[in-house]
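Researcher: We're teaching a course module on how sequence relates to structure. For the next exercise, students receive a sequence and then see the predicted structure as tokens, so they can try to spot secondary structure elements on their own. Here is the exercise chain.
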Amino acid sequence: MRLYLASTSPARLATLRAAGVEPILLSPGVDEDAVAAAAGPLSGPELVALLARAKAEAVTGSVIDGSPIDGFILGGDSAFELDGELYGKPHFPEVAAERWRVQRGRTGLLHSGHWLIDHRGGAAAGAAGGVATANVTFADITDAEVDAYVATGEPLSVAGAFTIDSLGSAFISRVEGDPHAVVGLSVALLRELLLGFGVAWPSLWNRGGA
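Model: And here is the predicted structure for the students to work with:
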């Protein structure tokens, strides 16, 4: 059983690989800002669910090596929520630095949306989705640490301007809830979604040792 990942996130890819799954990568090319703007005001879970679905649906017509997709397509999206406000990727160093000065020493919510399309046999036959959320508490890091972290460029392209699986890990004090939600892909939730289609998680294992 093949899994097609409609995402360019290195963290999602690494998470799946560590769980024994080597997905086929597809770039969805979705204008996230445009999709969000068209939808109007949404809660954090609603927004990431919408964008995850948009990404998965964007690649359904893809042809790989002359053949249509035959397996499951997974789209994902993440957003960080603090004081009721949603934060996606900061993109610019000054934005990332300002966010860190606001969120250090505090706790926020990381929402990760998932949308799974049953595309076995080369055509979409059903879909299901869900959202995993985790509470993330940051260390009260210094201005020098903020500047050093931002200078690496890592926080510019990730939701909330932080990672838990790379350089940002030292600045996270505690995580409550689904730990993989912070990375952007809940393996536990993905397993549950697959079970809804009668597919057992071990059937996706295709890496050495699995």
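Model: If you want an answer key for the exercise: The chain is about 30% helix and 30% strand. The CA atoms of residues 35 and 54 lie 8 Å apart.
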